[in-house]
Amino acid sequence: MVIAKQLKEKLKSIPEGRVFSLQDFDIPMEYQPALQRAMSRLVADGALQKISKGKYYKARKSVFGTLKPPVMEIVKDFLERNGELTGYITGTAAFAKMGLTTQITSAITIGTKQYRRPLKRGEYAVSFILQPNDITAENIPLLCILDALKLLNKIPATSPDECMPILTRQIAALPEADRTRLTALAAGYAPYVRALLGAILESIGADTSILRKKLNGTTKYKIPVSEQALPTKKNWNII
Fold first, then answer.
1. Do 20 and 56 form a contact (C-beta atoms < 8 A)?
2. Alpha carbon distance 147, 133 (integer Å)
3. At residue 1, does pLDDT exceed 60?
């Protein structure tokens, strides 16, 4: 009864839609099984929703029904640890926000410096891609641009030719300092990504000297993008 009372008091301070676990409760280890049983009873009563093993949330209700937590809440333990960024959401979810696709998906892709196996979290399939660059708040938008170039022919419900003008506009809109940092971050990606970035930068009249030095002038890159979408592609050995 004491554990159940403490749980109900704690739940009052947790906002609807925030994902939490046993570790968020200041309860000694020996009492955690009782805490888990109390949570299970609340789930059975409909007071709590369970996402996956050890992950719960208080559902927010609207005129459209019960709302699920934001995606960032569902995977927040992979995005931040002890106040430090450890990952970022990329893939289809990020590309949709960038206007590259209208696809709605239950797959979540996370860029991270540490290899992790894919997993299921409720209805979501969570996968990870390695990111060799520093993951910072300033870098994340630039890393998403480079990820889009990396996965250009895998972005759903669109084509590389449709994505190219959108990415070109977004890169052109970056301040010069961000374009310089984008070029530096591209060093951690495959050569074909650097070639694509170089062709885009050349098309908007930006500096490409650093990228040219980092590419083999004899290597050809077979990328399914037309000359209409990327007029400078031949200058970067993109075929």
1. yes
2. 12
3. no
